[in-house]
Amino acid sequence: MNTQNILLQVNDVSHARCLTLWQYASIASNTVGFAGAFPRSELVALDVADLVEHADGLRVIVRRSKTDQVGQGIEKAMPHGRFIRPVALLREWLEAAGITEGAVFRPVSRSGNVRSVGSNAEVGTEPRAPRLTTQTVADIIKRYTAAAGLDPALFGAHSLRAGFITTAAERGADLARIMDVSGHRDPRTVVGYIRRANAFKDHAGGGFL
Asked: Which of 77, 91, 112 is nearest to 28 (CA)?
């Protein structure tokens, strides 16, 4: 079962029930993380101002990434989609949480409320809404893969990014187009993912083993 199918299964089960705010946040972070092939540090750093509306989906501005240490920023296109529908699920979360500015992904308290203003702001600075931590993103992925009946030990925060690359490769996407989404600068890294995804496709021994 690939990452796309896992997300579809979990999202279908969740939407069959009345969603809590935490479920909205979890589903949105999973689907956006997958659709944008985001490292978790980029995912939790997203602000509402980084989401630019487009007729075909969203243009997502990544202010700084591991492959962009000088902070030039990159832009990722996120289509509406017909299956996972990342843009719609992201909008559902933002609307349910009442988020119109600041951090996109925020923690939800045990009482079911979105935490709005951080308590650890430095003296003399404007208080800001807290963000999900990178560890929380990893925990969400493990929780939802377990809900899909899979071994959570086999999945982690990198599974969304790796899952997009391998799923795109399985669907025959061009290397350059995959890199447009993942933001990788070195094609050798992406080729490694693709080789694993296509290990049995057109295998050299397929015709005689």
From this structure: 91
Q: What is the rounded distance in angstroms from the CA atom of residue 153 to the CA atom of residue 151?
A: 5
Q: Which CATH number fits domain 3-117+131-198: 1.10.443.10, 3.90.320.10, 3.40.1190.20, 3.40.630.10?
A: 1.10.443.10
pLDDT tens profile 134-166:
999 999 989 888 877 888 888 887 889 999 999
Domain range annotation of the chain:
3-117+131-198
pTM reported for the whole predicted model? 0.84
Closest to 3 measured CA to CA, from 47, 36, 50, 44:
36
Structure tokens of 108?
Answer: 């939800």
Taking the CB of residue 85, how many other CB atoms lie within 10 A of it?
A: 17
